């Protein structure tokens, strides 16, 4: 029987980080992946294809808008095949980095098949070969959660696993779920020419975002598709010709919506079934694996990372967790994970940047002694020159100016807000961002100008302000 220092089950963002890191430090590593090629959700059915589709759709949208503005005529339907090819090309270009071949070259033994616990140290692959692992990392990710809606099991629907394989664009689409998956892809498909309706049962869309951020996104998206928050789907049925009818309830009114296709984007379900977890007594947190801050499960030599644990379901978080597991499982350290400085970006247009606490969370956790700094993007020259003034920056600090949360909505917010992560990570105050020179007219001036407000508050108001004014009067 083959024996390893570390067995990784699942070759996605989390598992590949662990495997590459551990083998680099000299550990004997096995990686088990059930799909033909590693890469997981992010490469095959998540981040990469969605961002490629968003980019293709944005190009078309911008061309249409420009044509209209300059009095040109743009006629005909867009060829969806081009967007499809862009998606496949992006995946193909990144695949070699995550390939079986690359990992074998690194020295990892890659097994193709379903991994399942036989006991605490033995993993069975496809119910056949058994391998031994001194330490085992579960990195099996998640899949689309399918809500219990009457009739859904009898109709065809798309999920993130099938939407990127579509060869033709449906004329109309209903999306169930107004989270990042539903809104990013709903907007992209709308821009490519599909009539999109997004239904969400929550009182507001993007429920994890700061309340002041969401209206900007909602207003922008409503120009391109129909948004129906606070709406329950009671029943789905198939109509002749493949169309679907949804029976929905909004504000007590029973309505019907019809579309050519249905896309389920109603959250994620961790891949914990078929792993034999109950067999070895792994503790669960609902559907997720319960992990300590060292990313160990209740069985100390078994670790878990990525979407399979209930933390931050993002690629960069799975990567960060993977690095911590390398330190803990290879070197026997007890490093602990922290999500305090982990941002996320939702790639709608306008983009949403999110770091740390929202105002509501800050008030609940820190109290009302917090400071809020806000800036509208129409106060920033570069957004004015480019004609993209819709959006805001909002930073929440404690009384001493330490950043508790930083949020923004606007063109490219995911890029120009990153300096807030650096500042927060290294314990800098918001005012430090104001001391750094930003090129003019960069988008990043938006955060600098927000930070300037700290000094305006300090220097021109209160006792310090009065003293300074008195000094200047005498000095003159
Ligand atoms: C449409 C969409 C867009 C997204 N966009 C972004 C984005 O822009 N940015 C971002 O940060 N995140 C994004 N995400 C989230 C991101 O894809 C996930 O958080 C990330 O992939 C999780 O990594 P993971 O390693 O936990 O799981 P995965 O990457 O899914 O990897 C799990 C792997 O385990 C394998 N596996 C499962 N069970 C077994 C088994 N029993 N035996 C062997 N192999 C098994 C699977 O085949 C898979 O390869 C997006 C998600 C979706 C759905
Ligand atoms: N840019 C990014 O980083 C990015 C992009 C896409 C996805 N992701 C990751 O993927 C995860 C999953 O995204 P998601 O959008 O699928 O999930 P989500 O949980 O964020 O949102 C799902 C939405 O579906 C709604 N919903 C659930 N059941 C419903 C029902 N029966 N009827 C109507 N609405 C219903 C919920 O109210 C919620 O608003 C995210 O948490 C995120 O971590 C990240």
Automatic annotation (TrEMBL):
Cofactor: FAD
Signal peptide: none
Keyword Oxidoreductase (UniProt): yes
UniProt-listed Enzyme Commission number(s): 1.-.-.-
Span of domain Pyridine nucleotide-disulphide oxidoreductase dimerisation: 342-449
Segments forming domain FAD/NAD(P)-binding: 4-322
InterPro entries for the chain: FAD/NAD-bd_sf, FAD/NAD-binding_dom, FAD/NAD-linked_Rdtase_dimer_sf, Pyr_nuc-diS_OxRdtase, Pyr_nucl-diS_OxRdtase_dimer, Pyr_OxRdtase_I_AS
Keyword DNA damage: no
Entry protein name: Dihydrolipoyl dehydrogenase family protein
Species whose genome carries this gene: Paenibacillus gansuensis
């Amino acid at each position: 029987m083959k024996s390893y220092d570390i067995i990784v089950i699942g070759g996605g963002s989390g598992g590949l980080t662990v495997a590459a890191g551990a083998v680099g430090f000299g550990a004997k590593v096995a990686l088990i992946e059930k799909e033909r090629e590693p890469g997981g959700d992010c490469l095959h059915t998540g981040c990469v294809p969605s961002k490629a589709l968003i980019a293709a759709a944005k190009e078309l949208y911008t061309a249409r808008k420009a044509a209209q503005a300059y009095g040109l005529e743009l006629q005909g339907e867009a060829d969806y095949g081009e967007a499809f090819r862009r998606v496949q090309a992006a995946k193909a270009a990144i695949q070699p980095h995550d390939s079986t071949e690359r990992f074998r070259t690194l020295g990892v033994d890659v097994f193709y098949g379903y991994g399942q616990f036989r006991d605490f140290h033995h993993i069975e692959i496809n119910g056949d070969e058994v391998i031994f692992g001194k330490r085992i990392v579960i990195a099996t990710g998640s899949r689309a959660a399918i809500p219990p809606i009457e009739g859904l099991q009898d109709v065809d629907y798309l999920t993130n696993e099938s939407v990127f394989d579509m060869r033709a664009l449906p004329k109309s689409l209903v999306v169930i779920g107004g989270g990042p998956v539903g809104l990013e892809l709903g907007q992209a498909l709308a821009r490519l020419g599909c009539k999109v309706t997004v239904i969400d049962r929550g009182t507001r869309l993007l429920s994890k975002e700061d309340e002041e951020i969401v209206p900007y996104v909602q207003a922008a998206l409503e120009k391109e598709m129909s948004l129906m928050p606070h709406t329950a789907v009671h029943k789905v049925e198939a109509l002749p010709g493949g169309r679907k009818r949804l029976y929905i309830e909004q504000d007590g009114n029973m309505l019907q919506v019809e579309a050519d296709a249905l896309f389920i984007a109603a959250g994620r379900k961790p891949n914990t079934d078929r792993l034999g977890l109950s067999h070895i007594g792994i503790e669960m947190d609902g559907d997720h694996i319960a992990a300590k801050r060292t990313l160990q499960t209740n069985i100390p030599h078994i670790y878990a990372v990525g979407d399979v644990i209930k933390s931050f379901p993002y690629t960069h978080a799975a990567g960060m967790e993977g690095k911590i597991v390398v330190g803990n499982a290879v070197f026997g350290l007890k490093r602990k994970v922290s999500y305090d400085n982990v941002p996320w970006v939702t790639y709608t247009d306008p983009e949403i940047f999110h770091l740390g606490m929202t105002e509501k969370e800050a008030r609940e956790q820190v109290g009302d002694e917090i400071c809020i700094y806000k800036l509208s993007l129409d106060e920033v020259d570069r957004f004015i020159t480019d004609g993209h003034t819709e959006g805001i920056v909002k930073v929440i600090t404690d009384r001493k100016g330490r950043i508790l949360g930083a949020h923004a909505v606007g063109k490219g917010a995911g890029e120009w807000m990153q300096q807030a992560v650096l500042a927060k990570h290294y314990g800098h105050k918001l005012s430090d961002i104001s001391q750094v020179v930003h090129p003019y007219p960069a988008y990043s001036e938006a955060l600098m100008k927000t930070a300037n407000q700290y000094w305006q508050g300090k220097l021109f108001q209160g006792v310090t302000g009065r003293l300074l004014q008195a000094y200047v009067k005498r000095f003159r």
